């Protein structure tokens, strides 16, 4: 069995204090992606065999980030890197990743649920389209046996149980496991594991543009009142006005 | 002029409020627009919408899975020439939007809070900046943030058209084994539309009951600050903040929370923030929509009672 | 009745940080040379060793698969590094054997002008630059950035750097340091093992080099265990600083003295501030105050905020924006507080951890680099054919004594202590010391432990400016601006008595720049409970100087500095 965990493309770190992309620090594997790596490792351990490969997209330096996944226990790292992809959007990223994944021929592709810089769109669904694989997202429990997987998918309405044949794509939520800390031996051994860079094939060009960046709007007329006994009524009025009650 | 298709998500026979909000937005931007409802035995749902609605009705579409819906929407876009497809954020909708983007080679902008037919607006970087976004592809896909738009009902007449259903093999590979039942104790804080959060101002762990009662009355979930979780008053799973969860509900009620930045970054994306704190200088008042300086122990029980009686 | 912090020692003993190896041999990790701390000292040692490994591969073979390893408790090298800084490039030039040009080093620019200002609340008077502070041919740098750069250089030489790894115990076997035990990951608040618990490991090494920086954890334990204490106790200052994006470039390096510190001797408020340009669009500003201060209401964090409201300073920052904040202690005892030895069986100590800082010149980075380089060479000598471990390690001490570090520190050895007499007297004495190049006074003036200073209370806190979120910030916002997002559910790493007299609790609450300590309820017997928020901690080390003890939390915790 071959599992691919896909860490977030180019895991850029946002420094909340500066509110800017932090270019001075290292690129780091997104916390959310460690859940995907962990799930891949658990599946491999349960099956007693298989290979866990981490695939990502980003500049050369992003290989450092993949090393954490190798330190956790992944077997191999593949980095799709191409200067044309420096500010890739979802579409381009999906195309590039799908290309690399197709080369690998995995049974199962795992994604972490969200990118660290806040609410990315569903890369996994786009990649599934390109590869023509079934996709299940928001999975908080996953079992695999004999060519198919069963996932517990968390929606706004509760939990669905979904089954799909492999090869398939699964996006895991942070409820699925607790990612292991890499052991020191793992960290030291990571350097020796195979790490390949591949170019992107058939990059599409971005589908979206950024027109302008604006400061956030003020929160509208903020009201501040002191309780004179009628605060509860005032609050209810406010909520009704906002159609929240 | 745009020709817009809006995915109308439905659950147990009713169209979701978020989708209705997006449909209302589509009606405002000018040009033709229509909704799309996809499922099994859903014609009646389409008839309840006061606008043109494509209905794709097929037993294979019964389960709320994303990939068959990509097939249906892609065909509608190609056959009818839609150039804009809009969604309201949900687990299902997000998957469909991204899959559709890949299918059509269409640009996808998500997290939108507004759209004027040309440009969208989307907050980014933990809501510290608002980005004007555009598309460079012939078909444009937009995914609106939950709770961003008002679900004004449309008053046109029902106009249901049948959409044909052709499904790819791989789209139907995943199957629903067991669908979710109605939820047990209220939503988890990440999904909740309303959150009541408690901080040290509650005074003691037992007073969390005040937050729980109010949450129950409002139909929301209960959250906690790092300080009270550290002190053991409430579990870590409810912690909102920099080292806890990030939430963006429609309503966030902060009880006895001072609102230091570590907490703020976990909830500043909330649509409406109401704060009750006896300290008039609490930082939370700088970013709440309604700030109430007062004793929460007096205000909250009254508030809970008023909400309950309104709802009954 | 005034109390002293030292009367309430922390529930901690140096022997807590010393242990024999316990891992079975096949689980033990073996490295050639082990360095603790990816700061300028540790990385200089690593780089020098890396160079030697490259030059002599045959000898290096005896070091095994991992010839040189560096442990770093921060998330990455640089995450816990903080300084002013104006750096004398000499140490780095020697380290790279003249093969790196200045423009290849991560500096922000040469110092082109400087002034020293004496401040009052509203005015700034320029005073002649004391000779020790002339910064001709020195460069402004961020030590955090320097650390990242040195780490890359080290890795290129084959050094293995292990971030997010704390060194919890010195492994001692048969009276000899044989390595280090790393800290656990994945323990909960009460010490329980969580789902992803990963125990620490024994790392065995031929020689262990400690470059832990100020308040070094294992360094402190080693001092006790191997009797390394010198004649005088170490003393520290607390530095709190910010990095700002500014609207107009600053064209000079500025140091200030005077306001907001009080000159009278009874307060013992020794220190000052610095404002350094970092390129054309950034500036760093910091406040440094000796921890022998006595007022329980003194808060260096708030003094920095107050300093920024001074018209001369405010105009530098107007139109700008704070981008980072941090805090760290600096050893200030200098020459007279150096340890009696810098080595022990299997062990070498370098950098700030052993107090190699020139206080009047505000320099320590180049000493750290030079001492790391010398430690590396001594460690390498243990591999020479027929070498005696003991004399090879002892040769490190000799090389330190012959280095520029020694002569520099000796010359200024009594200056800091002079300021214990108050600002004006101290200033006059310091002048005399400089003029005589250290010959006056003869002998060494002793230092007094910071924790031995008796406490007084004034209404100092009444004049701290209120936070406005633009120029003046509160402590929690500052902790956020350090990049700190420490995992909450882990054991408390701070050792203090938690039932203490109110004045001591207040001292800690004001002292800590990260708002870790809070004065809790009175217990009715004259004491109060101290409440802690350990995940705020930026590991500055101030508590260790004032009656408690900082130990390293789970690896990866703490600040994530990038430009401090």
Strand arrangement, largest sheet of chain B? 7-11-6-1-4-5-12
Q: Spans of chain C of 5+ residues with little confidence (pLDDT < 50)?
A: none
What is the count of helical runs of chain C? 15
Distance between the termini of chain B: 45 Å
Fill in the CATH topology of the largest domain in chain C.
D-Amino Acid Oxidase, Chain A, domain 2
Structural class by helix and strand composition of chain C: alpha/beta
Question: What general form of chain B does the structure show?
Answer: elongated
**What is the count of β-strands of chain B?**
18
Helices and strands of chain B: which structural class? alpha/beta
Number of extended strands of chain C? 28
Q: Identify the CATH class of the largest domain in chain B.
A: Alpha Beta
Overall pLDDT metric of chain B? 91
For the largest interface in this structure, which chains are involved and how many residues does each contribute? A-B, 78 and 92 residues
Number of helical runs of chain B?
8
Q: What is the arithmetic mean of pLDDT of chain C?
A: 93
The CATH C-level class name of the largest domain in chain C:
Alpha Beta
- Domain count of chain B, please report it: 2
- What fraction, in percent, of the residue positions of chain B are helical? 25-40%
């Amino acid at each position: 069995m071959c599992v691919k965990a896909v860490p977030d493309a180019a895991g850029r770190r946002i420094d909340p204090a500066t509110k800017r992309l932090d270019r001075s620090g290292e690129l780091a594997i997104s916390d959310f992606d460690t859940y995907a790596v962990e799930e891949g490792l658990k599946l491999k351990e349960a099956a007693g065999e298989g290979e866990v490969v981490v695939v990502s997209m980003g500049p050369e330096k992003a290989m450092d980030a993949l090393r954490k996944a190798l330190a956790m226990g992944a077997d191999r790292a593949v980095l799709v890197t191409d200067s044309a992809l420096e500010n890739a959007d979802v579409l381009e990223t999906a195309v590039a990743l799908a290309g690399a994944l197709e080369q690998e021929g995995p049974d199962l592709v795992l994604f972490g649920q969200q990118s660290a810089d806040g609410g990315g769109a569903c890369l996994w669904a786009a990649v599934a389209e390109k590869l023509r694989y079934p996709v299940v997202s928001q999975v908080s429990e996953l079992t695999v046996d004999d060519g198919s997987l069963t996932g517990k998918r968390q929606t706004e309405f509760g939990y669905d149980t979904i089954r799909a044949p492999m090869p398939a794509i699964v996006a895991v939520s942070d409820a699925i496991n607790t990612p292991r800390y890499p052991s020191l031996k793992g960290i030291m051994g990571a350097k020796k594991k195979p790490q390949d860079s591949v170019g992107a094939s058939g990059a599409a060009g971005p589908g979206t543009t950024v027109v302008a960046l604006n400061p956030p709007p003020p929160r509208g007329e903020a009201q501040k009142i002191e309780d004179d006994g009628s605060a509860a009524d005032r609050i209810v009025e406010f909520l009704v006005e906002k159609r929240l009650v | 002029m745009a020709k817009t298709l809006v995915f109308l998500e439905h659950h147990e026979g009713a169209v979701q409020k978020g989708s209705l909000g997006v449909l209302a937005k589509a009606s405002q931007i000018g040009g033709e627009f229509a909704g799309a409802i996809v499922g099994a035995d859903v014609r009646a749902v389409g008839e309840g919408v006061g606008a043109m609605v494509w209905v794709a009705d097929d037993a294979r579409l019964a389960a709320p899975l994303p990939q068959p819906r990509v097939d249906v929407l892609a065909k509608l876009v190609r056959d009818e020439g839609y150039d804009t497809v809009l969604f309201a954020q949900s687990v299902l909708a997000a998957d469909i939007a991204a899959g559709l983007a890949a299918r059509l080679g269409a640009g996808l902008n998500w997290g939108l809070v507004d759209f004027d037919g040309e440009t969208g607006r989307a907050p980014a970087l933990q809501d510290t900046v608002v980005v004007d976004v555009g598309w460079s592809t012939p078909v444009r896909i937009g995914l609106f943030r939950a709770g961003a738009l008002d679900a004004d009902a449309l008053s046109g007449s029902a106009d249901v058209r049948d959409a044909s259903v052709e499904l790819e093999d791989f789209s139907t590979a995943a199957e629903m084994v067991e669908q979710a039942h109605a939820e047990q104790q209220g939503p988890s804080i990440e999904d909740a539309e309303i959150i009541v959060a408690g901080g040290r101002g509650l005074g003691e762990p037992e007073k969390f009951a005040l937050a729980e009662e109010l949450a129950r009355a409002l139909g929301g979930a209960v959250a906690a600050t790092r300080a009270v979780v550290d002190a053991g008053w409430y579990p870590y799973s409810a912690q909102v903040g920099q080292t806890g969860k990030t939430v963006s509900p429609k309503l966030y009620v902060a009880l006895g929370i001072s609102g230091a930045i570590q907490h703020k970054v976990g909830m500043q994306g909330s649509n409406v923030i109401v704060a009750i704190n006896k300290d008039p200088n609490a930082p939370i008042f700088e970013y709440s929509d309604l700030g109430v300086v007062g004793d929460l122990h007096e205000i909250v029980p009254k508030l809970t009672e008023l909400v309950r009686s309104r709802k009954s | 009745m005034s109390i002293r912090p030292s009367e309430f020692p922390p529930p901690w003993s140096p022997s807590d940080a010393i242990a024999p190896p316990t891992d079975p041999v096949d689980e033990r990790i073996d490295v050639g040379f082990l360095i603790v701390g990816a700061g300028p000292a540790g990385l200089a040692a690593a780089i020098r060793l890396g160079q030697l490994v490259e030059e002599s591969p045959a000898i290096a073979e005896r070091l095994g698969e991992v010839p040189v390893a560096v442990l770093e408790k921060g998330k990455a090298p640089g995450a816990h590094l903080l300084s002013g800084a104006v750096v004398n490039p000499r140490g780095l030039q020697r380290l790279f054997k003249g093969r790196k040009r200045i423009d290849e080093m991560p500096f922000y620019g040469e110092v082109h002008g400087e002034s020293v200002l004496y401040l009052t609340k509203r005015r700034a008077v320029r005073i002649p630059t004391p000779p020790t502070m002339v910064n001709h041919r020195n460069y402004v740098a961020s030590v955090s950035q320097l650390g990242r750069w040195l780490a890359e250089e080290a890795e290129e030489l084959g050094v293995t750097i292990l971030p997010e790894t704390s060194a919890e115990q010195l492994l001692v076997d048969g009276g000899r340091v044989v390595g280090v035990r790393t800290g656990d990951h994945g323990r909960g608040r009460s010490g329980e093992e969580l789902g992803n618990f990963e125990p620490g490991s024994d790392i065995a090494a031929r020689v262990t080099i400690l470059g832990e920086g100020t308040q070094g954890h294992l360094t402190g334990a080693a001092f006790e265990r191997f009797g390394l204490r010198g004649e005088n106790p170490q003393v520290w200052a607390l530095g709190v600083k910010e990095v700002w994006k500014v609207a107009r470039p600053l064209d000079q390096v500025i140091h200030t003295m005077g306001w907001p510190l009080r000159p009278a001797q009874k307060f013992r408020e020794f220190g000052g501030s610095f404002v350094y340009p970092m390129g054309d669009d950034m500036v760093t500003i910091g406040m440094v105050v000796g921890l022998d201060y006595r007022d329980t209401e003194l808060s260096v964090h708030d003094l920095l905020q107050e300093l920024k409201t001074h018209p001369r300073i405010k105009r530098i920052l107007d139109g700008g924006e704070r981008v980072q904040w941090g805090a760290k202690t600096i050893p200030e005892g200098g020459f007279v507080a150096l340890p009696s030895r810098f080595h022990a069986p299997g062990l070498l100590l370098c950098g700030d951890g052993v107090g190699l800082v020139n206080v009047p010149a505000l320099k320590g980075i180049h000493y750290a680099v030079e001492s790391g380089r010398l430690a590396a060479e001594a460690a390498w000598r243990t591999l020479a054919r027929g070498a005696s471990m003991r004399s090879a390690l002892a040769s490190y001490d000799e090389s330190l004594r012959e280095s520029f570090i020694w002569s520099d520190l000796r010359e200024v050895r009594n200056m800091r202590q002079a300021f214990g007499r108050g600002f004006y007297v101290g200033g006059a004495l310091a002048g005399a010391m400089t003029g005589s190049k250290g010959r006056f006074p003869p002998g060494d003036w002793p230092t007094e432990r910071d924790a031995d200073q008796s406490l007084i209370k004034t209404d100092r806190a009444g004049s701290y400016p209120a936070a406005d979120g633009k120029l003046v910030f509160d402590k929690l916002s500052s902790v956020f601006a350090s990049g700190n997002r420490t995992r909450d559910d882990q054991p408390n790493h701070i050792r203090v008595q938690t039932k203490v007299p109110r004045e001591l609790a207040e001292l800690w609450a004001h002292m800590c720049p990260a708002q870790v300590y809070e004065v809790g309820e009175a217990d009715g017997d004259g004491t109060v409970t101290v409440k802690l928020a350990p995940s705020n901690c930026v590991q500055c080390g101030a508590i260790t100087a004032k009656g408690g003890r900082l130990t390293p939390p789970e690896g990866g915790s703490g600040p994530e500095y990038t430009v401090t």
